[in-house]
Amino acid sequence: MADPWRVAYEFAVQVARAAGAVIRKATEDEIKVSTKSTTVDLVTKTDERVEKIIIGSLKAEFGEKHCYIGEESVAEGKPCVLTDKPTWIIDPVDGTTNFVHGFPFVAVSIAFAVDKKLEFGVIYSCLEDKMYRARKGMGAFCDDVAIEVSDVKDITKSIIISEHGTDRSKDKVTKIFNTMQKILCIPVHGLRGSGTAATNMCLVATGAVEAFFEIGIHCWDIAAGAVIVKEAGGVLLDVDGGEFDLMSRRMVSANNRVIAERIIKEIEIFQVSRDDDPVSK
Questions:
Q1: Using 50, 70 and 90 to split pLDDT, how confident is the model at 2?
Q2: H helices of 186-273, where?
Q3: What is the DSSP string of 28-69?
Q4: To 10 degrees, the CA torsion angle through 89, 141, 161, 80?
Q5: Residue 75: what pLDDT?
């Protein structure tokens, strides 16, 4: 039987590695930074350049029959709509703040969806030189070694990852820290955060941590990681316990449903606009 997306998957791995090389080289050069929506939501010339490299490479290979959702493109006003067409979902530099400060977790994230369903995901943690990848129904890998989530079911023996996000409004920050306090006091072994959603999801997939949750992330932050976590044996849920929705900007990824549902009990939910809501753009 023909494998329709094998070539696209293998090409995505190559493109991610090439993009990562550009990022590593940029860490040796002067970093020019501007801001997006807030002072903590940073964008560098590297983000813009790497996205152009990735999308340019994909368009040269697959043409305009495919659709492209990129973080920097959306910031410039292009639509963020997931259709039934083959669609690439790209975060050129996940962890821009880390990149700017020299904190060593920065990832290239490339996902591919058809009929609104994710087919594969590739995450290259470029400063670590680790390539994570997964295809639907074919398992998850890090540098060609199969990976799987941990088998911990007792949340008191778990490590949980989350992030503070980029919205610094007092009410949302209060809810974020209230949630973290409640989870820490379950108690759990610890709370962590790498500063990049893509890397956080890979840590779930490798069994290094039991779960990652966040409200306010974007589809390009988590699309590739969603495939990798699921193929590593993990679960994905909405923060209210419902079905995972890529465009909702809210997610719990965990090694199993027991851990996920225990975390959900402690989450103080706040409202965020959807990625595919044109009114919010």
A1: low
A2: 197-206, 219-231, 257-264
A3: TSPPPEEESSSTTSEEEHHHHHHHHHHHHHHHHHHGGGSEEE
A4: 10
A5: 87
